[in-house]
Design a protein that fits this description.
The complex is a heterodimer of chains A (about 160) and B (about 400).
Chain A: H1 3-20, H2 27-38, H3 43-53, H4 57-66, E1 78-83, H5 86-90, H6 93-104, E2 117-122, E3 134-136, E4 139-141, H7 146-155
Parallel strand pairs in A: 1-2
Antiparallel strand pairs in A: 1-3, 3-4
Chain B: H1 21-27, H2 31-41, H3 53-62, E1 69-74, H4 83-90, H5 92-106, E2 110-115, H6 123-135, E3 152-157, H7 167-174, E4 198-202, H8 203-215, H9 217-221, E5 231-238, E6 244-249, H10 254-260, E7 266-271, E8 277-280, E9 298-303, H11 308-322, H12 328-346, H13 351-367, H14 371-375, H15 377-386, H16 388-392
Parallel strand pairs in B: 1-2, 1-4, 2-3, 5-9
Antiparallel strand pairs in B: 5-6, 7-8, 7-9
Classes of the chains: A alpha+beta (about 160), B alpha/beta (about 400).
Chain lengths: ~160, ~400
Amino acid sequence: MFVAEKNALSEDIESYVKKYGSDRSALLMILHEIQNKHRHISEFAQQEVARLLNIHPVEVYSVISFFAFLNSNPKGRNLVRVCQTISCDMHGKVGVVQAIERELGIKVGETTKDNKFTVEYANCLGLCDMGPAMAINDQVFLKLTPEKAVELLSKVK
Amino acid sequence: MELNTKKRTGPVIFSEYKRGDAIKKAVSMLREDILFELKDSKLKGRGGAGFPVSTKWMLTSAAKADEKFLVCNADEGEPGTFKDRVLLMEYPKLVFDGMVVGGYTLGAHQGIVYLRGEYEYLLKSLEDYLEQMRKDNLLGKNILGKEGFNFDICIVLGSGAYVCGEETALIESLEGHRGEPRNRPPYPINTGFLGRPTSVNNVETLAAVSHIVVKGGSWFAKFGTDKSTGSKLFSVSGDCDKPGVYELPWGTKISELLKLVEAKNTKAVQVGGASGFCIPKSEFNRKLAYEEVSTGGSVMIFNESRDMLHVLKNFMEFFVDESCGQCTPCRIGNVKLLEGVEMIEKGEYTFSHINKLKDLGRTMQLASKCGLGQSSPNPFISILENFDDEIFNSGNNGGRNGR
């Protein structure tokens, strides 16, 4: 990581700590912001958060490793989450996933070579009446067909 | 996102309500009187556990502390549940007014909405709504001119952990720790968020509180059955023509619900989400109520073409994924149950082993630390027992799964 990048990241983290406070109860929201902006929470970011909240970095890591939406390793620029729970499963999740896998040339859990997409399964997105559902970053898409899912991906930059 | 904006109808939750009414009424009442109204209403927690709300609030308001908290549990992770999403999207007035009433009753100054990370797209509109409430003095200092009544609400996002719907795990994660459930007691009503008395209530419970304050506890208790008063929002999904959120009085029969949502050739209904029970056709005349078939509102419908073993496998994969791993019965038990399902799938099982797994399930129900492990064997036991003919008798399952 370049020094300039590190400084920018530190500044971001400082602004989040300012916004949410330096009590430990602010940790989840701070991590959430870092995750949203940088797509992952690097070791350096973890150390910065720990320093500003005055806790041990391993405490920060333990929280990151617990939650499915926080990760310490970089993922693709766009995160695709396909709901795998039963209602979506019954309405054609398998076809949607296979179409996405064929189109992107990767399996669920992998990242495309150009780093554009990471595809994952998600547990119940709470859209059971309009399945199959998937989320691309923070947007959700409903009543998918294999064709529609692939079309949606092609519109993502 | 395509929004379902058609006007919803229902006897209680979806009945007429004007923003701020509950707060106006509440600040003119004594705290004790609100508690008595709640007691009359016999309102029970809508998240699924069904603890009487008046008891929880009485204990919290009686607890002595420098600070108290009211937490709205919007970590709606149970598969097949989406009523809280609908409430927050279309009826934030009910939920937030209920929270302000709660803050007044409990003597809390801070309300926290724990919103599941999957619903992040709701965050912006909810924040805007809260800002408008602050402008109208429905939040903030001396609310509606009531001297000394200060209350505000903030929203905290979860990060994709089902177990955080459990109240102590939720509090752990609010405090910036791993979302692992605590031992109870002490209960959050004494020792909750930051060690202060905390009441954790479901979104729908708080929405019901708003109606009860305005219309009275006895009005609420008119609906439903004797032990389950009021109505319930049911999140209906699966094999039916009209999935969605329905408000029905408690005591509605499963068969009546199926007719309403136009489900055809129904074989089974999973009530209460993945951690609930699978009800076979022969029991469709049972009633949905705390005393009969209790539920947090998830109703998933399976028709004749569905393979129940596949359904069970999906549920067990979910629990293996979502077990927090803190206690052994849940961490290892769920993996063993899933392995059992895979053995049946391949036709490589013995009945003595399956029976041992059912015993293991019953052990998990007793020995797990929190509701997740205590309820995750429910589908395993209920599906294998109610659909044994389909699953184990190859003459009846078309030779599926190597059985």
